[in-house]
Amino acid sequence: MSESTAIMSSSVSDEPLPNELFYPGAAAEAGAEFYGTLRISPARMRLQPELDLAVLERYGDAGLFPGLALELITLDGLLVPVQRGQMVKEANPGRTPSFWCAIAQFGRVWREPGDEWSWAAFPLTLVSHRDTHAHQGLVRFRYKERQVSTVQFQFVQQTAPYLLKQHFVAWGSAEARWSEPRAGDPAALRRQAQAELARRLPHRPLSDLAREFQRRRFNEFGAPVREQWRVQSALVRDGVLYYQDARTPYGNFPYPLEMRFGVRSILKAVAAPLALLRLAYVYGPYVLALKIGDYVEGLDAKYRRVRFLDAANMASGFGGSGSWETYPNDPNDGYLEGDYDAWLAAPSHAAKLEQIVRTGRPYPWEPGTVMRYRDQDFYLLGAAIDRFLKVVRGPTADAWDLLRSEVFKPIGIFAAPIVRTREAEGRRGVAWFHSGYYPTLDDLGKIALLFQNRGAAGSRQILHRSLTEDLLNAKDALVQSGDASLGLPAGAERGPNSGNLYKMGFHFIPYVGAESGRQHFLPTMRGWGENEIVLYPNALITIRIAKAGQLPPGQKPNSGPASRAIRMVDRLSPL
């Protein structure tokens, strides 16, 4: 097949199109089948509002849609990206590369009545190897035999930015051409896509569940985050994923279950506990007592006393900055100080270690006694786990590969895009364990269910069961405002008024059941921007994705107390 292009309208509208135009309408007919590679040229995006991009000159052009080469195939009306769920890098970057790479997901193909050309559309998420937020968008083009049109794209929703500082929408068009796919078996590719779709959780709109209860009980869903800062919300009940409409300024997002999110520090409650509990199941609980300094070279000597578990508890005894004598303890003291941005943006593992050594300082207390929020603890833990695996399994072993093959795949997660360090000569980088995971609602629901099921998937035990139970029960969790270095054992201050607890990436939120009067510490995954997943003792799970970070001056993220959503769940099924 020779490459060819069909030139259609490349004009760009004054604002993004209605989202419904990226999904087949009621009168649509079956689109033509195809299998090939769509090569999209880089293109300047229109941005609203315009961004101050000077801050990103070191990192890439955030206003440039990246050139992409995406292998696509059709399956019974679906558009199936062969690289779905992967962070696809910019193809042939210019002198100033794009800030972005992209993740493609399942879309649709169709034909309008009387039209010889077919339409193809799919969700595309802009993400970066330098930051960990995400812009959820849509792409569409027309095709006929060996011809393709100009590609139209728009990015109409996002999770909270950090380096970019601003919320924005982006849209535009790009030239494209069609070429032969890489050698592959189309039938095998379609079977693989069918198998992945078959493993998804049963899913229904949340409105279906609302009809089973009094509608007023759902008024607090997604609270206390204000509606304009919510991206998506869901509830898992009896193994079914109930999801809300994914609202945007241009209509509901037409592929809500395909959206991938920058969940930020929710990764702390995913990567570290899953890896440690899996390794404890395979090799024994001694893994949690291994020392960071024995597996990561060049660190302060105190790291030879920092256990893997201490790092997972953010209790390494290092702080970068912040107060030494603060009581009650402020777990966020010094979090973003110590030149945090330079560490975050450092591209390679060696560069990140250099920043840690340069800015990190040991506090006077021993590891395991005081919690201070610190992304570097989780980054070092991921690097240490990776090195441990290379020692016991060989030089090609990888910490994130362990999770993908031994944890995610058995529970039906087939793609797990993660940010890694960028190393010279194309060497594979170290997976970030502090932030940088881009899951779907389905992925998050399955991970939460694995914890709730005590580390089992059906009859297969994946995680160390008793240690998983200890985690969910907050056994030996640190009181976030406490200080065990004062001579009290860890967790001794725990009680009705102790506030939040912390263990292995989980926040434990105190709540007293309205009817039962029972005290609970609810296992909670949290990520910057008001992302939150809560596991309840009544077997429910709530998921909230939000973008409530870097807000405009005067804007507030929340309305009312944090317990509003918990009370809603308590009314549905008393805790």
Characterization of the model:
This protein is an alpha+beta fold. The protein folds into two domains: 19-189; 265-536, DD-peptidase/beta-lactamase superfamily (Beta-lactamase, 3-Layer(aba) Sandwich), CATH 3.40.710. The chain contains eleven helices and 26 strands. A hairpin with a 6-residue loop joins strand 9 (107-111) and strand 10. Helix 3 (271-283) packs parallel to helix 7 (375-393) and helix 3 (271-283) crosses helix 8 (399-408).
Poorly predicted regions? 1-8
Number of strands: 26
CA(first)-CA(last) distance: 62 Å
| Strand content bin | 15-25%
What is the C-level CATH assignment of the largest domain? Alpha Beta
Which CATH architecture of the largest domain would you pick?
3-Layer(aba) Sandwich
| Tally of distinct domains | 2
How large is the count of helical segments?
A: 11
Which value, in Å, is the CA radius of gyration? 24 Å
Helix fraction, binned, reads: 10-25%
CATH topology of the largest domain: Beta-lactamase
Identify the quaternary structure here.
single chain
**Category by helix and strand content:** alpha+beta
Question: Which key features would you list for this structure?
Answer:
alpha+beta, 11 helices, 575 residues, 2 domains, 26 strands
Give the helices and strands, then pairings:
Blueprint: E1 29-30, E2 35-40, E3 43-44, E4 46-48, E5 64-65, E6 68-75, E7 78-81, E8 101-104, E9 107-111, E10 118-127, E11 135-144, E12 147-148, E13 151-158, E14 169-174, E15 176-179, H1 186-198, E16 203-205, H2 206-210, E17 230-237, E18 240-243, H3 271-283, H4 308-312, H5 340-345, H6 349-359, H7 375-393, H8 399-408, H9 441-452, E19 456-457, E20 460-461, H10 465-472, E21 478-479, E22 501-503, E23 506-512, E24 519-527, E25 531-535, E26 541-546, H11 564-572
Parallel strand pairs: 16-18
Antiparallel strand pairs: 1-9, 2-6, 2-15, 3-5, 4-14, 6-7, 7-9, 8-10, 9-10, 10-11, 11-12, 11-13, 13-14, 17-18, 17-26, 19-20, 21-22, 22-23, 23-24, 24-25, 25-26
Helix pairs in contact: 3-7, 3-8
